[in-house]
């Protein structure tokens, strides 16, 4: 007759911890997924004006820069330009031909912000001052 060895008494009374660990893990995942996560935001105050003089268009000829939605991204004097190099050379030529003309920037609401920032960085690097950024009255 084959007899199995009797289990020692110390191991026979220890509970199996695997189901307990599974339950603890599931509860921990549930609590992590349902916890309220505080989203950190920064309040930005955008300047607004009701001053009609600021919102008026200049009474003389201007050099108009347009930041467009999609491709092409830029236009000068209403003429779309397909690449950045052409846009920058024509802008510098226009400013050299008429340095007394004010520069006005008009951007589409849905234009790429990167395109607008690229224009502003170029103007800052070349010491070009924009006298007006076109806005709508709220």
From TrEMBL:
- Chief subcellular site? membrane
Transcription regulation keyword on record: no
Q: Name one GO biological process term.
A: protein transport
Q: Which keywords accompany this UniProt record?
A: Cell membrane, Membrane, Protein transport, Transmembrane, Transmembrane helix, Transport
| GO cellular component terms listed in the entry, alphabetical order | plasma membrane
Q: Where in the cell is it found?
A: Cell membrane
* Official protein name in the record: Biopolymer transport protein ExbD/TolR
The lineage, from the top, is: Bacteria, Pseudomonadati, Pseudomonadota, Gammaproteobacteria, Vibrionales
């Amino acid at each position: 007759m084959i007899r199995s060895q009797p289990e020692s008494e110390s191991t026979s009374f220890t509970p199996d911890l695997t189901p307990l660990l599974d339950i603890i893990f599931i509860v921990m995942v549930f609590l992590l997924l349902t916890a309220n996560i505080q989203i950190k935001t920064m309040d930005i105050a955008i300047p607004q004006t009701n001053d009609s003089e600021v919102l008026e268009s200049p009474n003389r000829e201007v050099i108009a820069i347009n930041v467009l939605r999609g491709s092409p991204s830029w236009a000068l004097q209403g003429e779309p330009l397909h690449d950045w190099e052409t846009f920058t050379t024509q802008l510098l030529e226009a400013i050299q031909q008429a340095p007394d003309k004010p520069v006005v920037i008009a951007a589409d609401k849905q234009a790429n912000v990167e395109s607008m920032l690229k224009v502003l960085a170029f103007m800052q690097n070349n010491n070009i001052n924009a006298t007006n950024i076109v806005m709508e009255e709220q």
